Amino acid sequence: MAKLSRRLLSQSRVIAKGNRIRDVRRLVRQYGGKISKWTKKSSSPIQLGQNVVEYHWYEHPGLGVFEIKRKTIE
Questions:
Q1: What Å distances lie between residue 58 and 6, 22, 48, CA to CA?
Q2: Domain boundaries, the chain
Q3: Is 5 exposed, middle or buried (0-12, 13-18, 19+ CB in 10 A)?
Q4: What is the rounded distance in angstroms from the CA atom of residue 69 to the CA atom of residue 72?
Q5: For residue 65, which of 46, 28, 26, 39 has the smallest C-alpha distance?
Q6: 68 and 12 in contact (C-beta within 8 Å)?
Q7: Are 56 and 66 spatial neighbours (Cβ–Cβ below 8 Å)?
Q8: pLDDT (tens digit per residue) in 2-58
Q9: Distances (CA, A) of 22 to 49, 52, 58, 59, 65
Q10: Is-contact 53 66, C-beta < 8 A?
Q11: Where are the alpha helices (DSSP H) in the chain?
Q12: Most CB atoms within 10 A, among 6, 7, 56, 58?
């Protein structure tokens, strides 16, 4: 799993929480925890060469950070 820097984590924003996360039931089956505690987060836009990207991930207190994805912004 990729690691996110403390700066990236501290500047993140919440995209969705609990039942508003499309895959929350799968996350609970796969990783555990309560539905209401899951959050989907996003980083601020980051310039990487010619591209601007954001990182998206799921987070649960006590369980950690899961499924980090890099998304290119057009």
A1: 16, 11, 22
A2: 6-73
A3: exposed
A4: 10
A5: 39
A6: no
A7: no
A8: 577 888 877 899 999 999 999 999 999 999 999 999 999 999 998 988 999 999 999
A9: 31, 25, 11, 14, 17
A10: no
A11: 6-10, 24-31
A12: 58
Question: Which amino acid is residue 4, in one-letter code?
Answer: L
Residues 54-72 pLDDT 10s: 999 999 999 999 999 999 9
- Write down how long the chain is: 74
- Count Cα atoms within 13 angstroms, Cβ side, for 48: 12
Q: Judge contact between 13 and 41, C-beta under 8 A.
A: yes
